[in-house]
Structure formats: C-alpha cells, structure tokens
Amino acid sequence: MILDIAIEIKDLKRSFEAVTAVDGISFNVNKNEIFGIVGPDGSGKTTTIRILCGLIIPNEGTAKILGFDVVKQINKIKKEIGYLSQRFSLYADLSVDENIEFFAEIHGVRKYKDRRNELLSFMRLTDFRGFRAGKLSGGMKQKLALACTLIHTPKIIFLDEPTTGVDPVSRRDFWRILSNLLKSGITIIISTPYLDEAERFTRIALFNNGKILRCDTPENIKASMNKQIIEIVTPKIREAYDVIINKSGFEAQMFGDRIDIVVNNYKEDLVSLENLLNANQIEILDDRQKPVSLENVFINLLQHQ
C-alpha cells in the first residue's frame, strides 16, 4: 500500500432491498487532505461514510482505512477515527466540559483535561465551558460536537453534513477550524449537499444516485467542462429559459432570477442568444461571462448522464 493513502475504496456496493444506495464506487483519500463527498440528498453520501466507519457492511467491494479492512479489522480502525454524524447527540443537560468528559471516557481517554482545554481554546468555547449544551447556539453546538469527536486525537475524522442548518457566520467559523485542523496532520472526509462549500476541499467526489460522476480537485473538475458560461438577467426569466431550451442548441441552467447558458464562445454565442430572445420579445437587461462553477459542471453532468 502507498503510505500517503489514508483510505482505499474499490467497487463498493450497498443496497437496501430494492434501492441501491452505493453502486460500485472506487476512490482513494490521501493523508492530510480535506476530501469532500458532494451530492444531493439520497445520492449515497451518508451510506458511504457509515460503511467507512464500520456501521454498515457493504454487499460487495472493499474499503480500507490506514491499511485495515473496514469489515474484518474494524476494531483496529475505531480508535484511529472520529465520526460526527448528522444526528450527533450532545447531552443538553450537561455542560460543555461535561460533554467532552463523557466522550473522553467513552474512548478510554483518561488524561483528557489538557486535551479538553486545548480543544476549547481552538473552538473558542473556553468562556462557555460551564454552559449547558442545550443552551448553546446551533453553530456552537456543532463546534462542541467537533470537540467531542476530536477528544481522543483521531488520525481521520468523518463529518456527515456538519454545516446543514448552521447560520452563515457560524459556517464560516467552522471552515476556519477545519482548515486549521489540517495543520495538525489530520485527514478530513466531509459530506455536503452544498456545491459552494466544495470549493474549499482538496479533492471532491461528485455523487449522484450512488455513483461517482467525477473525482478530482475542484479546479480540474471545472476545467474538464471546457465550456464558457453566459449569465443573463431578464424580466421574463421562465419564458427566456423555455425559449433557450426549446429553440437553441444551448444548455440553460436557471438560478433564481438569472440564467446560465453553456456556450463554446462568449462573444459569438451571445449575439445568437440576443437575436433569438429578441425575436421572441424577450429583453436581456444584463449579461456577463462568469467563471464555470461546480454547480454548472454538476448540472451539465446530470444532463449528459
């Protein structure tokens, strides 16, 4: 095994009765990177993470963490990983300190006080250590949950949609914490439905219907589209979208009050678009060439899947 690889997944499958949640996926995660499992609800993100944490047994394929098989050698893996699930439960009536102490005892960490103080300072929770967990804000609860996940100093942590339902300011603070964690040499695997968050990751796997559409750096995935994007604003957003879809050879993607059109050449294709929309009594109020986003790539992949 290559020493720089933290996780190896090959041909992994998992079904639940008639539903195939994970459908023959393969990828590696390198040590000391933030690897993103990105996709909509029901795409297989949580099932994949739960397999890697030894909570679900795959039907087919293999997965190894630090060289250990997740089915046959899970007891050797558990002490090396931390898992923050979507439903991570803090004890509302216990204080911040007491919650961390509880999870330290679960993991068999006896001399935990210095580590707890370090984590509280790192999470900016020192001033709240006496507060009951149930009284904390959503963002502070997530930081406390992360501290509990890190109390036994794992080499790899799995975070399943940790920023869902968290306000933008707390979410930004959470990402600062994760970026700083990398400096300690930890490996982070994180799932999210938010494609804008995926820009922060070292590498990502784009999931849909249990399959991987692309696995690479965000920059390489965006470059692989090899197209340009025209963003237009028009008072007749739905009519414009329908005209572009039905009367041109362009791919259109609607985002709120704007439409992204996938083209080969911005200047040349903009003229064609203007002529088409004008012929249908639709005015373009504003247009610009915008960088290709992961949202553009993901929708493009779905439409050509």
Provide an overview of this structure.
This protein is an alpha/beta fold. It folds into two domains: 218 residues, Rossmann fold (3-Layer(aba) Sandwich); 77 residues, 2-Layer Sandwich (Alpha-Beta Plaits), CATH 3.30.70.120. Helices cover 35% and strands 28% of the residues. The protein has eleven helices and 14 strands. Strand 1 and strand 2 form a beta hairpin. Helix 3 packs parallel to helix 5 and helix 5 runs parallel beside helix 6. It starts with a strand and ends with a helix.
CATH topology category name of the largest domain: Rossmann fold
Large-scale geometry: globular
DSSP summary: helix tally: 11
User: Given the helix and strand composition, which structural class is it?
Assistant: alpha/beta
Biggest sheet statistics: 6 strands, mixed
Q: What's the architecture of the largest domain in CATH terms?
A: 3-Layer(aba) Sandwich
Low-confidence stretches: none
What CATH first level of the largest domain would be assigned?
A: Alpha Beta
Element pattern in H and E: EEEHEEHEHHHEHEHEEHEHEEHEH
Helix content: 25-40%
| Percentage of β-strand residues | 25-35%
Question: How many domain units?
Answer: 2
Mean pLDDT: 93
Query: For the terminal residues, how far apart are their CA atoms?
Result: 33 Å
Strand order of the largest sheet: 6-7-8-3-9-10
CATH homology superfamily of the largest domain? P-loop containing nucleotide triphosphate hydrolases
CA-based gyration radius:
23 Å
